[in-house]
Design a protein that fits this description.
heterodimer; A: alpha/beta; six-stranded mixed beta sheet; about 35% helix; about 20% strand; globular; B: mainly alpha; flat
Chain lengths: ~575, ~230
């Protein structure tokens, strides 16, 4: 066995209760084990314990036995453990040494630390670059890589130590769909071609369904279910364990429930999801794909948000937006999608004045943004950022949520009502008096959203709200977005989660290199004729779209649309028969 | 160059060094960026000029008076000389940072026997500065988006310190922990000597030139201080 855990319990230093209890696991060389579970189920702790970092490096108390290649981690120094078990974390930026001038030297960091001879270092670096197929990046500066590429370099850096086990803690959670596919492909290649035992923690069950031989579900620090991924992901009680079923499983189940699964017999939905799209984006040019803008809207109420020929150039000279025309009506739900660096974040920052257009005009509720202060615009536009840890500062959840509304002039008792409503909308009422840093990342993220909702702005912008959320958190955010829509507030989101986008938003705007390339309802944007445009900005349509196109059902961006299509198709067949 | 500028007395030392530095900057095509860096000396230069010109001890050659303060010729000359030395020093530091890549400097220092920990600490300290600035930018943006007014009076700007400092410190601590674990996971604490990967071209003539420049500077400085060498 490459890795075994026998009766393992672990408690962090200073913690009252254990983060892991009585965990038994064994992973063979060449096997891929997926770990799933709700947030705070102990998945990251399991990674630290398996790699020997806990307790050797971070302290805490370990009971039971963890072995790497048959040797107990208690007897291993950190660098010995590192040569047996590599670990990859979420954030590529904190994993690179930051002292290397090229990718090649970055990958060489580990082998050099082991004091190997230069020829041995060269061999290992070449092998590691080869294993994740990034030989072409060897001469690049590590800081000039995309998120996905940087994560691949971090992976190669760990592989260069030639560990027999590799533990990955949500390796794709901070990446865009293109980056996720890069990592997914690299891991699939490793699983096929090497004898490394892989342990992958992921919320993206679609990815695990593709990669894992076996899956273990953690809940409250204990293993509550395990089995081959093909059967485990089919379990009907998966949701009750805080895990979302893969899209393929969910669609098949819905079709069976409605008695329209006939056409899905013999169709491997998982393989359909794996295949992705042809990256052939030839013959497509920006303007031709744009959904015709709504004309003659001048007579009606002013747009909630309006960008008029907006161009934005950063002081560094990077042209992030080029000639963007966008009109978002009051009460509309709009999703902005596109690869990292396509201009989504730059665009939303124009709407609350954090950035001012280099050329063109931005209007909010019909008034030009001009030189109005950000603080003044915050009364109309609330923007929740991606990373809650760049925002949360108060000692109590309630105070954090009150910061925004107080700034925009809400007073008691109205302030208390706004705060309570916002906390309730994100399921945080029970935590109002807790210190935000005791919440865990995903609930802290919900708090950062609540703290913006509490400002009661007519327009709400959410940057990547579902990142790092488990099934429960995801459902919470969906409910909050639906409630905003019911209340008539305009909701704009930036998201890499196509399922979320297709199911909750009535309009999708695709950005590529600072320009709008496709714009329209999900059924229009995810239609097969726009797939090349999506692929050109490293996006993929949601699985229901791919399935609908395959079965000739038309454009079916959501599970409900596929089932509907299957039902109609079924009806037609019966009629003909 | 900084050594000569400070140790060689009178005007020749600093002026000669500024000329050499500008020539180097021209050759390395970094003149514009060097000029921007030189602007950073304005506050210190201004204070040197004011203090020396008006308050030079024992000077009597009066130029003009401003209220209770009297400008003196000796003071002004001393101020200009000091200014030239400071500018020469600033330019030498700027020239060094503009023409030397951090990673190459660190690799070379390690090759010369500096320990891996010291090398790493130096490297990450330098790399941390832009990251801290980026993080501070993100935090400020998210608080401003929640209506924190940082535009306008100093009082308003000060109000932004608390919501900025909290996430800044928490973020830095988290990052240190993550980085420590990532380093351990790459065998950083192994107690063996690391092989040197890169050889830097360093010809014999370059090495001789460097030593000559170093020894020459010391000799010049010593000669000037001891009074053996008198320059205008």
């Amino acid at each position: 066995m490459a890795l075994t855990l026998r009766g393992v319990s672990y408690r962090y230093a200073g913690a009252a209760s254990p983060a892991l209890s009585e965990v038994d696991l064994a992973v063979e060389p060449g096997e891929v084990l997926g770990i799933v579970g709700a947030n705070d189920a102990g998945k990251s702790t399991l990674c630290l314990v398996a790699s020997g970092l806990a307790p050797t490096v971070i302290g805490g108390h370990l009971a039971g036995e963890v072995t790497l290649d048959g040797e107990s981690t208690r007897n291993l120094t950190p660098h010995d453990a590192a040569t047996r078990c590599g670990i990859l974390f979420q954030n590529p930026l904190t994993q690179l040494s930051g002292t290397a001038a090229t990718v090649w030297e970055e990958v060489a960091f580990g082998p050099r630390n082991l004091g190997l001879t230069v020829p041995a270092v060269v061999d290992r670096v070449e092998a590691a670059l080869d294993a994740v197929a990034i030989g072409s990046l060897a001469e690049r500066h590590p800081e000039q890589l995309s998120g996905g590429q940087a994560q691949l370099v971090a992976l190669a850096g760990v592989l260069a130590l030639q560990p027999t086990t590799l533990v990955l803690d949500e390796p794709t959670s901070l990446l865009d769909p293109g980056g996720t596919r890069l990592i997914g492909d690299a891991l699939a290649r490793l699983a096929r071609a090497s004898k490394v035992a892989l342990v992958i923690v992921e919320h993206k069950t679609d990815l695990l369904a593709r990669l894992a031989d076996r899956v273990v579900v953690l809940r409250g620090g204990r293993v509550v279910a395990s089995g081959p991924s093909s059967t485990l992901f089919e379990r009907p009680d998966l949701a009750s364990m805080g895990v979302a079923a893969p899209a393929a499983v969910s669609i098949r189940r819905a079709a069976e429930r409605d008695g329209v699964a006939g056409r899905l017999v013999g169709l491997d939905l998982g393989a359909l999801a794996d295949a992705g799209l042809p990256s052939d984006a030839e013959g497509m040019e920006g303007g031709a794909w744009v959904h015709p803008a709504v004309e003659g809207a001048d007579a009606g109420p002013p747009a909630a948000l309006e960008a008029d020929a907006v161009e934005y150039v950063y002081p560094s000279g990077t042209r992030a937006l080029g000639d963007v025309d966008l009109r978002i009506e009051p009460g509309q739900r709009v999703a902005l999608i596109g690869q990292n660096g396509s201009g989504k974040s730059t665009l939303v920052r124009q709407f609350n004045g954090l950035l001012r257009p280099t050329r063109g005009e931005v209007r909010v509720n019909g008034r030009g943004v001009g030189r109005r202060h950000v603080a003044e615009l915050a009364r109309e536009v609330g923007l929740a950022f991606q990373n809650p840890d760049r925002q949360v500062f108060a000692r109590r959840v309630r105070d954090e949520a009150a910061f925004g509304p107080r700034n925009v002039g809400l007073h008691r008792p109205e302030l208390d009502v706004a705060v309570n409503d916002a906390l309730a909308a994100l399921g945080l009422s029970d935590a109002a008096d807790v210190n935000p840093f005791d919440l865990g990342f995903s609930r802290r993220k919900l708090l950062s959203i609540a703290s913006v909702l509490a400002m009661r702005t007519p327009i709400v912008i959410l940057d990547e709200p579902t990142t790092g959320q488990d099934a429960d958190g995801d459902a919470q955010i969906r409910r909050a977005v639906a409630a905003l829509a019911t209340a008539g507030r305009t909701v704009v989101t930036i998201s890499h989660d196509m399922r979320f986008v297709a199911e909750l938003f009535e309009r999708v705007v695709v950005l590529r290199e600072g320009s709008v390339v496709v714009d329209g309802p999900p059924a229009h944007v995810f239609d097969a004729r726009h797939w090349p445009a999506l692929a050109s900005t490293h996006l993929e349509p949601p699985l229901p779209s791919i399935l609908g196109a395959r079965l000739g059902l038309g454009s079916t961006p959501t599970e409900a649309a596929v089932i509907d299509g299957l039902r109609q198709d079924d009806g037609r067949r019966r009629l003909r028969a | 160059m900084a050594l000569v500028a400070f140790t060689v007395r009178e005007w020749t030392g600093p002026i000669a060094m500024i000329v050499v530095e500008l020539a180097c900057a021209l050759a390395a095509r970094v003149t514009r960026r060097l000029a921007v860096l030189a602007l950073a000396t304005i506050p210190i230069v201004a204070s040197i000029l004011l203090v020396n010109t008006f308050l030079f001890p024992g000077a009597t050659d009066r130029l003009f008076s401003l209220g209770p303060f009297t400008a003196t010729g000796t003071g002004l000359a001393a101020a200009l000389q000091a200014t030239l030395r400071v500018v020469a020093f600033a330019l030498s530091v700027g020239l060094f940072s503009l023409t030397t890549r951090t990673d190459e400097l660190l690799a070379d220092l390690e090759r010369r026997g500096l320990g891996r920990r010291v090398t790493f600490v130096l490297g990450s300290a330098i790399a941390t500065i832009p990251r801290m600035a980026e993080r501070a930018g993100e935090i400020t943006e998210s608080q401003r988006a929640r209506g924190l007014d940082t535009e306008g009076s100093i009082l308003r700007r000060l109000r932004g310190v608390l919501p900025l400092a909290g996430p800044m410190i928490a973020g830095a601590l988290t990052e240190v922990e993550e980085r420590t674990m990532a380093l351990e996971a790459r065998a950083f604490s192994a107690q063996v000597a690391r092989p040197v990967l890169r050889a830097f071209p360093d010809s014999g003539s370059e090495r001789i030139g460097r030593w000559l420049a170093f020894l020459g500077s010391i000799a010049l400085g010593a000669a000037s201080i001891s009074g053996l060498l008198r320059l205008p």
